[in-house]
Specification:
Pfam families: PBP_dimer, Transpeptidase. Catalyzes cross-linking of the peptidoglycan cell wall. This is Peptidoglycan D,D-transpeptidase MrdA. Pathway: Cell wall biogenesis; peptidoglycan biosynthesis. The chain is α+β, with helices and mostly antiparallel strands. The strands form 6 sheets. Strands 2, 3, 4, 5 and 10 form a 5-stranded mixed beta sheet that branches. A 5-stranded antiparallel beta sheet has the order 12-11-19-18-17. Helix 14 (328-337) packs across helix 16.
Length: 618
């Protein structure tokens, strides 16, 4: 029998077809899986792998511009940049971020504040962007990270420039400091300018001139390996450095002003009355901007912010105080110019004052009174009775109108952030703010700078400069004008009097305060061969009942009177105007006036040494 008769050809075909079908189905399934995977990678995961693939070859890295320097009027560096190292992380190259942070914290010290700031920056960052984790690394930190570099993909130690303030606490409120940028600070800014950096000006000049100091970001295209480690820089678009800025501030005079305040809480503002350039802006107590810029932990910063003496509070711009008797030259001039008082006529001061049909007694600071005083002696001896009566005769609305012409109750427009407006009360002001009518007794209190009246030290200095200029206002500023760069105009109009001779009378009255035999600040006029025009002030912090006397020893120090003094010198050709406020310092004549003399004398000696004073000026 032949073999062909034994073969089952139909069965064989059936087996072959089954096997081919199975192979086809398997091939189709495998092809479907492959197509599905390709689709998943190409479509669903396109952005991720495209960015990762690009980053394996070329990474775009922002290059932070060098922050501009801050210089004083003589070119001394007040804020500079020093080399340092910081730790950065690219989150996309980290598998387990929590594990990474835990491992890093075991190697170097990471504070909760640093981790929180990192997480906040991570949430707003773009893909494959380096995010700062620790801004300041010690040499030991850098060494430990270098040895363990292989353990931390996506982690880099980057060199950078950190802000440094060579004079430490001196000038801290004027210069300010930089700190880690927050989300709220980024809302109104161009985020692209702040890629690759985490610092921004927080206070003072650093904040006011952030846009000029900041510069423009650059860009690097960096070739990397699969782990994201940089291999080489392909090309580089260099950053544009920030501008260096020069201030009108004199750091030596600033140091003198802060030393004069010593341990007292208070402020001293000194300016050139010809230009409005601020020579010194001291607020005590101060703070170390280097410590804040390096990054204080939360507890340390809370301790600083919550300190009862408020070292972070800029008293020169934001402290509001009753100006007390320093308003008397202004009010006396206003009374003479408006015809409410004749400068040569005298008023008898017996130590008390009464309003018609009012039982209350207003008392002079000198219980027995000053006797007969004219305008000059009323300022020199600081007679309260003279100004009680003058304010009553003028009325509160006229007092308000005249005093605001000197800038009282207004902002000065100084080129620093955070200035507060003073208060120069009126009937309308009280009705709008307190919903109450005005009383005549409140007018009497306003006449000696008490009651509702409040002023900041920068406002007192600016008004004093206007007085020194015989009505020509200035706008205080810290930025030194460059070439023809103009300072913005003052916020008050020039004050022109019908009788310009009254300016000399008012200035003579202020000179008498310091150089007259009965002047309240005559002690600081000794041994001076030039003349200072000044005015002392003592402002009550708490009210004293009618039948009580002020006893400094019987009350807490923080309820003691504030001490004030305003002045300009030389009286004939002013080169400096000064305002001093000493919180709870007691008498303006014994506490504030000597501080002002130290500042004035230091500046006059400096001008003389530099040959900036005309021969025979003394």
């Amino acid at each position: 029998m032949s073999l062909d008769l034994l073969r089952d050809k139909t069965g064989e075909r059936r087996v072959v077809r089954g096997r081919l079908l199975a192979a086809g189905v398997l091939a189709a399934l495998l092809f479907s899986v492959l197509v599905g995977r390709i689709a998943y990678l190409q479509i669903a995961q396109y952005d991720h792998f495209a960015a990762q693939s690009q980053d394996n070859r070329v990474r775009l890295a922002p290059v932070t511009p060098t922050r501009g320097l801050i210089l004083d009027r003589d070119g001394r560096i007040l804020a500079e940049n020093r080399p340092a190292f910081r730790l950065t992380v690219i989150p996309e190259q980290v598998g387990d971020m929590d594990a990474l942070l835990e491992a890093l914290n075991g190697l170097i010290d990471l504070t909760p504040e640093e981790i929180n700031a990192f997480e906040e920056a991570r949430r707003r960052a773009r893909g494959f962007q380096e995010i700062p984790l620790k801004l300041q690394l010690s040499d030991a930190d850098v060494a430990r990270l270098a040895v363990n570099r292989h353990r931390f993909p996506g982690v880099e130690v980057r060199p950078h420039l950190t802000r440094h303030y060579p004079y430490g606490k001196i000038g801290s409120h004027a210069i300010g400091y930089v700190g880690r940028i927050s989300e709220s600070e980024l809302r109104d800014r161009d985020r692209r300018r702040y890629r690759g950096t985490s610092m921004i000006g927080k206070t003072g000049v650093e904040r006011a001139y952030e846009n000029r100091l900041r510069g423009e970001m650059g860009l690097e295209r960096i070739e990397t390996n699969a782990l994201g480690r940089p291999l080489s820089i392909i090309d580089r678009e260099p950053p544009i450095p920030g501008d260096d800025i020069r201030l009108t501030l004199d750091i030596e005079l600033q140091g003198v002003a802060e030393a004069a305040l010593g341990e007292h809480r208070g402020a001293i503002v000194a300016m050139d009355p010809r230009t409005g350039g601020i020579l010194a802006l001291a607020s005590q107590p101060g703070f170390d901007p280097n410590a804040i810029s390096r990054g204080l932990d939360r507890q340390a910063f809370r301790s600083l912010r919550g300190h009862p003496d408020q070292p972070l509070f800029n008293r020169a711009l934001r402290g509001r105080y009753p100006p007390g008797s320093v308003v008397k030259p202004f009010l006396g001039l206003a009374g003479a110019a408006s015809g409410h008082v004749d400068p040569d006529e005298t008023v008898f001061c017996n130590g008390t004052y009464h309003l018609p049909n009012v039982s209350r007694t207003w008392r002079d600071w000198k219980p027995q009174g000053h006797g007969h005083v004219d305008l000059i002696q009323s300022v020199a001896q600081s007679c309260d009775i003279y100004y009680y009566d003058l304010a009553y005769q003028m009325g509160i609305d006229a007092v308000h109108d005249w005093m605001t012409r000197f800038g009282f109750g207004l902002e000065t427009g100084v080129d620093l952030p955070g200035e507060r407006q003073g208060v120069m009360p009126s009937r309308e002001w009280k009705r709008d703010n307190l919903g109450e009518p005005w009383y005549q007794g409140e007018t009497v209190n306003t006449g000696i700078g008490q009651g509702f009246t409040l002023a900041t030290p920068i406002q007192l200095a600016t008004s004093t400069a206007m007085f020194a200029n015989r009505g020509a206002p200035v706008r205080p500023h810290l930025l030194e004008p460059v070439d023809s760069e103009a300072i913005e105009p003052p916020l008050v109009e020039p004050l022109t009097l019908d009788d310009e001779a009254l300016w000399q009378t008012a200035i003579d009255a202020m000179v008498e305060v310091v150089h007259g035999p009965r002047g309240t600040a005559r002690a600081i006029g000794e041994d001076l061969d030039y003349r200072i025009a000044g005015k002392t002030g003592t402002a009550q912090v708490i009210g004293i009942a009618q039948d009580e006397e002020y006893d400094e020893d019987a009350i807490d120090e923080r309820f003691h009177d504030h001490a004030l003094f305003t002045a300009f010198a030389p009286a004939t050709s002013p080169r400096i105007a000064v305002a001093v406020v000493v919180e709870n310092g007691g008498s303006g004549s014994t506490t504030a006036a000597p501080m002002a003399r130290r500042v004035i004398e230091a500046w006059m000696q400096q001008l003389e040494a530099q040959g900036e004073l005309a021969r025979g000026w003394r």
